[in-house]
Specification:
The structure is a single chain. This protein is of the alpha+beta class and 138 residues long. It has a single domain, classed as 3-Layer(aba) Sandwich (Aminopeptidase). It is built from four helices and five strands, in the order E-H-H-E-E-E-H-E-H. It has a five-stranded mixed beta sheet with strand order 1-2-3-4-5, sandwiched between helices. The longest helix is centred in the middle third of the chain and has 15 residues. It is globular, with a radius of gyration of 15 Å. The protein starts with a strand and ends in an 18-residue tail after the last helix.
């Protein structure tokens, strides 16, 4: 398995993986958004792959105030093989090299299994927040 920056040619495979995991959003995950994000910072989206294609992805959202990991997803038939953990570790190491000292991740408050997944990897529970959004176009 190899972990590398996202390229636009990965989009169709990534979209399927996000859909399988229930993470795909037509607006947030449009091809144009992913392309713009990767062009703005080539290391902001990581892809796990093998000879058969894309296995998973994770996004890194970083500014001068904080860092978040977002959209961790692994293809269904490859889950439980350490791909997600490798993506998380790779992202965390990149952030450490950038002198970041903390990272957060959003998890659905109703998904106890996913919360446990992250807790096993050293993440602590924060407060309960609800994400609200507003479309600015259309």
């Amino acid at each position: 398995m190899n972990i590398r920056p996202y390229q636009d040619k990965d989009y169709d495979e990534v979209k399927v993986i996000l859909q399988q995991g229930g993470h795909f959003d037509d607006v947030w995950d449009s091809r144009s958004h992913w392309k713009a994000k990767s062009e703005n910072d080539s290391n902001s989206i990581l892809i796990a792959e093998n000879d058969d294609g894309v296995l998973g992805c994770i996004l890194i959202i970083k500014d001068k105030w904080t860092c978040f990991l977002f959209r961790l997803a692994v293809i269904e038939d490859q889950r439980g093989k350490g791909i997600g953990s490798s993506l998380i570790s790779h992202a965390e190491e990149m952030l450490k090299k950038d002198s970041e000292d903390e990272v957060a991740i959003f998890v659905n408050e109703d998904d106890a299994g996913l919360q446990q997944y992250y807790e096993k990897r050293g993440y602590l529970r924060g407060g309960k927040y609800r994400c609200l959004y507003k479309k600015l176009k259309g």
